[in-house]
Amino acid sequence: MAESFRAILVSRDENKKQSVDITQLTDADLMDGDVTIAVDATTVNYKDGLAITGKSPVVRHWPMVPGVDLAGTVIECDSGAFKPGDKVLLNGWGVGEVHWGAFAGKARLNSDWLIPLPDGLTAQQAMGIGTAGYTAMLSVMALERHGLNSKSGPVVVTGANGGVGSVAVSILAKLGWEVIASTGRTSEAEFLKGLGASEIIDRAELSEPGRPLGKERWIAGVDSVGSHTLANLLAQTSYGGAIAACGLAQGFDLPATVMPFILRGVSLLGIDSVNAPKQLRLEAWKRITTDLDLEKLEALTTTIGFDDIIPTAHDIIDGKIRGRVIVDMAG
Ligand code: NDP
Q1: Could you report the per-residue pLDDT of 83-127, keeping only the tens digit for each?
Q2: What residue numbers bound the domain in which 230 lies?
Q3: What CATH number corresponds to the domain at position 94?
Q4: Ligand 1 mean position, distance from CA 118 (Å)
Q5: Cα distance between residue 306 and residue 111, in whole Å
Q6: Nearest CA to ligand 1 atom 24
Q7: In whole angstroms, how large is the CA radius of gyration of the chain?
Q8: How far is the CA of 206 from the centre of ligand 1 (A)?
Q9: Are 19 and 303 spatial neighbours (Cβ–Cβ below 8 Å)?
């Protein structure tokens, strides 16, 4: 009999009512692909929370094994790109949305989607970073491409206690930026200062409708929140600055005016991690290994086992998760 492995399966009935089950699968159940991987570690991102709770239409193929990030070991690879035993990393590419993903003992994928596990990182550390951390790095790189650096002025990070936010705070602080961290959990100020934030502001200051232009408070920003928060960030950005927009934790709307763009030359930089080209991914992960302090990473990660994935997915949507979650598949 074929060896089976655990998996989370998100299904829909004929009335489109969603259910989530832990089930057993075999290799024969997996979707097509040219590489089969044993999943060593994964993580729970906000998007995985959306998939499991069904809060937003992240899943577009039914049934679905969710999980957008994995670190694993190659079992077999038909393309020749990898050999058995190679350690690999996957972020995005629609995995966990349209192609069965990481919340299973094994995954069968397209080898083009994979990059080698970066030197110096374990599978667990790579998942501590995950799509959230790699998106934080993409955001920092976008600000740098715009010509901004730690000498330019302060940077604001929203959703600072979340996955993207906490990694962004750590990276920016290590790069020497003065980091203003915006959070709804001001009780976590010491945690954020430990990651390197210089100033903590209450997200309530930014989350309500604001004026088209405000006092210039920062030259750059990493925003994982969207909506009024992003509009207020733009309105309070200094002349020539830029905000990297990567998330929608408050909302996907952007109730802003053009005033910051046309009167202060402010730029809005869009960040997508899912379909980012391979070269950019390789660069982002290389930068992560030099620009993220692994001790800080340890401070912002919590490790859980496979059975904790579903409750954690609900917690991340409820805003109860601080920093990043590592799922150790051996756990
Ligand atoms: P987390 O849930 O870990 O963090 C989100 C944080 O946003 C929360 O911790 C909270 O921070 C803040 N927040 C939550 N709700 C609200 C609200 N109503 N108003 C204001 N702030 C709020 O998620 P991630 O960090 O993993 O992801 C953040 C966002 O980035 C998500 O929207 C996700 O979909 C998006 N994303 C986009 C990617 C891309 O490719 N563009 C890749 C990865 C993520 P605090 O408690 O500090 O206030």
Answers
A1: 999 999 999 999 999 999 999 999 999 999 999 999 999 999 999
A2: 130-270
A3: 3.90.180.10
A4: 25
A5: 25
A6: 163
A7: 20
A8: 15
A9: no
